[in-house]
Write a structure and sequence with these properties.
mainly alpha; globular
Length: 336
């Protein structure tokens, strides 16, 4: 982490000084560092009325904080009862958003405006692998910093991939009694099929973009909504508040619990419905493309397969006495 922060600060300084030393071609309108910073920080109120804006923002937060994938829940199972959840959660969220927004955004967006001309319609691949190499080519020891940057990017992607796969591996181990290598093999087969499909239909990145939207945004959004409802209305905010403050060194205000119970589910539901109403016809029209349709069907098939496995594992847990049956009394939950 310290090495990544130092490297990011050095690259940020170089991006902020692009054009000041005469190392760029003749400037074209809008292709300046100032334009990039303006695109990032100058608010556009009209976009706030588009549900897609809030959907994309929420999906990004859920993705970067590992909420929608269930990674947080899996990692929480490794914690001790008196571990400080409040301070750890605050630290993780703050550091993550600082690196993503303040450092990542201020590096990539100005660079994109200078070398690509605009950001609208530019993919994340273009931001990372077309704009940034131009920055490294114009800084002292650029090859070294370029290697360091992309190596750390590779490590970050690898560790994130491991964390995303861990919930499924844990499920296969505990739900079906598989050994870790067998669980990894089953999951490896599923991911290989998905990876091979995306590689085969790599033209125009249509399949990858479809996977990214439906899995990386929509399904994460739906899962986060389900988790919010389960926490606020099933588990209970009083019980959640008590668990949160076990071993905590800071106090979390009570209104946070009220937001988690009332505001968050309503907000997510309204954004989801608004997006379906406003952008739904476009998504349906996109189904006319064979690649998009088969990509959605592939996602649906994998999802159905996983749901069947969850059902089978649930029956196994219930027969083993690890889950209450419908005849068992429900556990008492503190009144709210």
């Amino acid at each position: 982490m310290p090495l990544m922060a130092i490297c990011a600060m050095i690259v940020l300084v170089r991006v902020m000084t692009l054009g000041l030393t005469g190392d760029l071609p003749a400037e074209t309108p809008g292709q300046t560092v100032t334009s990039g910073l303006g695109f990032m920080w100058n608010a556009n109120p009209e976009k706030l009325w588009e549900p897609g804006t809030w959907l994309a923002a929420s999906g990004q937060i859920f993705f970067s904080l590992s909420v929608g994938f269930g990674i947080i829940i899996t990692y929480a199972s490794y914690l001790r009862e008196k571990d400080d959840l409040a301070l750890s959660g605050l630290t993780a969220c703050s550091v993550n958003e600082f690196f993503e927004v303040c450092l990542g955004g201020m590096i990539t967006l100005p660079a994109a405006f200078i070398f690509l001309g605009a950001v609208t319609g530019v993919s994340t691949f273009d931001l990372g692998f077309k704009a940034l190499p131009n920055v490294f080519a114009r800084m002292p020891a650029g090859q070294f910093f370029g290697f360091l940057w992309f190596f750390m990017l590779f490590v970050a992607a690898l560790t994130s991939s491991v964390s995303m796969l861990q919930p499924v591996i844990a499920f296969l181990e505990e739900g079906f009694g598989l050994k870790r290598h067998a669980s990894a093999a089953v999951l490896g087969l599923i991911t290989t099929l998905g990876g091979a499909y995306v590689v085969y239909f790599s033209k125009g990145m249509t399949a990858l973009d479809t996977f990214d939207f439906w899995v990386g945004t929509m399904l994460i959004f739906v899962l986060a909504l389900i988790q919010a409802i389960l926490y606020g209305w099933i588990f209970g905010i009083r019980r959640g508040n008590a668990e949160l403050h076990l071993g905590a060194h800071i106090r979390v205000p009570w209104f946070i619990q009220l937001m988690l119970k009332y505001v968050v589910p309503i907000y997510l539901l309204v954004i989801f419905i608004g997006t379906c109403i406003q952008d739904g016809p476009g998504y349906v029209q996109a189904m006319g493309k064979p690649v998009v349709l088969t990509s959605v069907l592939f996602i649906g098939a994998v999802l159905c397969f996983l749901l069947v496995m969850v059902h089978v594992a649930g029956k196994r847990w219930q027969n083993a006495g690890r889950l209450p049956s419908s005849a068992d009394p429900l556990p008492k939950i503190p009144s709210e």
